[in-house]
Design goal:
By secondary structure, the protein is α/β, with parallel strands linked by helices. The protein is globular and about 45 Å long. The chain contains eight helices and seven strands; from the N terminus they run αααβαβαββαβααββ.
Length: about 250
């Protein structure tokens, strides 16, 4: 029951963000508030980011097979489309139906890119060993810690033996811990309060950030059959957090 409540809170938050401010919700730049985003720049920035990260991967693992990739937490497909320029087929996955609808609209002409909604606390809709690369940026940090563990295990499961996982996670908050209104209540109460608050005041909901220490990340992956090959500092969560980009290989 508690798990279903928590995943529903995540889903409701991102459905509301997709309605109110989808591009800012993905990349928290103040000048992209309220859909003022220059979409050409938005997607070009995603292409440049993916190219930089794939170059980092190639320096460690030049043998990556560029067949099938999974983009977990794809949003409107900003990074999925960039991956599709390099892989034979890319699947973008997101918890928000409205984000998926926007992604399909933006990339309707990209034939090797498909978008799938997943509201499960796992990746049960995908077969074991289905992907050469499982990719996720600024997504795992927005799901509660028990789900981070499950999704990391699932990343390893759906990756083929010898395939790669490339994902980002903050490890700790560097500024003093911040509490918000919702963290002071049990999840079931918080969900009801958020619903009432969102009906009364049409503002963007609070985006929670969750951290996982590198030692925990490595232990979870090792138990799931994957080994971390590289760990790079990452600034995508902002200056308040220490964050890393992880590269792991499925045994």
């Amino acid at each position: 029951m508690l798990r279903s409540v928590r995943i529903r809170l995540v889903r409701n938050t991102w459905e509301r963000l997709a309605r109110l401010d989808p591009y800012w919700a993905i990349v928290n730049r103040p000048d992209w508030r309220r859909n003022r985003t220059e979409l050409g720049e938005f997607f070009a920035d995603g292409r440049a980011l993916v190219e930089r990260q794939l170059a980092q991967v190639a320096a460690v693992c030049p043998d990556l097979r560029m067949e099938r990739a999974l983009d977990f937490g794809c949003g409107v497909g900003r990074l999925s489309a960039a991956l599709a320029a390099r892989f034979r087929e890319v699947v973008g996955v997101d918890i928000s139906a409205q984000m998926i609808a926007l992604a399909r609209r933006h990339h309707a002409a990209v034939g090797n890119l498909v978008f799938v909604r997943n509201t499960r606390p796992d990746l049960g809709g995908f077969a074991t060993g289905e992907f050469d690369l499982v990719y996720s940026l600024i997504t795992l940090q927005h799901v509660p810690r028990p789900f981070i563990r499950t999704y990391l295990e699932e990343f390893a499961r759906v990756c083929r033996p010898g395939g790669l996982l490339l994902f980002q996670l903050p490890s700790q908050e560097q500024a003093p811990a911040r509490r918000n209104l919702w963290s002071m209540w049990p999840p079931t109460v918080a969900m009801r309060l958020r619903r009432v608050f969102n009906r009364i005041i049409p503002i963007s909901p609070i985006i929670d950030v969750h951290c996982l220490a590198p030692g925990e990340v490595r232990a979870i992956l090792a138990a799931a059959g994957a080994d971390v090959l590289a760990q790079w500092p990452d600034d995508s969560t902002g200056p308040a957090y220490e964050s890393f980009l992880y590269l792991a290989r499925r045994r």
